[in-house]
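User: Hi! I'm working on a homework problem where we have to compare a predicted structure to a textbook description. Could you give me the structure for the chain below?
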Amino acid sequence: MKPVFPLIDIYDSYHVDLIPAEENLSKAPATELLIKDNHSLLYDSQGNIWKYYLKSDLFEDTVVNRVVAHTLYNPEFEVEPVWEHAGEYHIEGLKEEIQYCIDYDEGIITQYEDADIIKKEIAICFSFADVVDVLNKYVFDVDVKGILEEQEKREKK
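Assistant: Happy to help. Predicted structure tokens:
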């Protein structure tokens, strides 16, 4: 079983990322191949939650390779994600997770817009696609000029 892309990735319980396609997980440095638990929960449009780790037939996990990857040379490898179904979710649960991420944001999610605005937009989402659209609008595929125009309109009110 594999997830349906795009995926919303919530990692370390308070960071959010968007993975548009599986191709975005096709290369990784050696240090990432050494991690078997990347602390990510990935949400797909079908209501499924996923975990994954990356593997490569070209990289062998040995003490020497670990030391070299962490000190001298950290080459990138072609990789394949190994998926594990971790449960199911309801859209309200995903929205709560994202709201939590916004509350604990370190200036990444709120780089272009205030937290209250993004939280309000997330709160009124009805579907996974709506959530992805809001994240793209304010975080990942930002039209800075459009955001500035929206902010100016709000200030004039």
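For your comparison, note the following. Residues 91-142 form one domain. Residues 64 and 70 are 10 Å apart (CA to CA). Good luck with the assignment!
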